[in-house]
Design a protein that fits this description.
Elements (H helix, E strand, L loop, with lengths): L2 E10 L5 E11 L4 H12 L26 H15 L6 H10 L2 H9 L6 E8 L5 E7 L4 H15 L12 E8 L1
Antiparallel strand pairs: 1-2, 3-4, 3-5
């Protein structure tokens, strides 16, 4: 009696697992012992487990109504929050630190190529944002200081100080010797 069977080429690994290397359809006259053994392995082997697809998580889209326009209220709230963090006045330490880092007088003296020294004071009006609103040189010691004065006053007007919360403009005087 002839039967149609599929022979599998099997390999046995050290861990005892069996791997199928490929089917080979063959016509046999009679099943042999080895074929029966392979057939038994084929029927005993369970099909690979089916893996369920991972659940799809959809993000919910939340639609919100447009916010009402409240630019003035927001600006006011931000100004109040910033004022709460700012010092009430321009401190002497902040003023002196800014003046110490300023190179305006040295730049003007180098540009004017002055031969002798001098001294003067610079009077500055500073608003609460830290901007210098006006600057003028006062108490110039000699003609050399008077020659450098317009350059120093112009550079002092571009100087910036730390902001402070008070709404008042403060006037400070800085003395320079060169």
């Amino acid at each position: 009696m002839k039967t149609r069977s599929t022979l599998l080429t099997l390999s046995l690994f050290a861990a005892g697992t069996v791997a199928c290397l490929g089917p080979a359809p063959v016509e046999l006259a009679e099943p042999t012992f080895h074929e029966a053994r392979f057939t038994a392995v084929r029927f005993v082997a369970a099909p690979p487990p089916e893996v369920a697809p991972a659940p799809v998580v959809k993000k919910k889209t939340v639609r919100r109504a447009p916010a009402p326009v409240v630019d003035e209220v927001v600006e006011l709230a931000l100004d109040e929050a910033e004022d709460a963090l700012l010092p009430w006045i321009l401190s002497d330490a902040s003023f002196n630190a800014t003046i110490d880092d300023w190179t305006g007088v040295r730049t003007c003296v180098a540009t004017q190529r002055v031969q002798s020294g001098g001294a003067f004071s610079v009077e500055m009006s500073i608003d609460n944002s830290g901007a210098v609103k006006s600057a003028k040189v006062v108490d110039a010691s000699n003609s050399t200081a008077n020659a450098v004065a317009p350059c120093v006053a112009a550079k002092a007007r571009r100087l910036g100080f730390p902001a402070y919360a008070s709404n008042e403009t403060t006037t400070r005087v800085a003395k320079f010797v060169f």
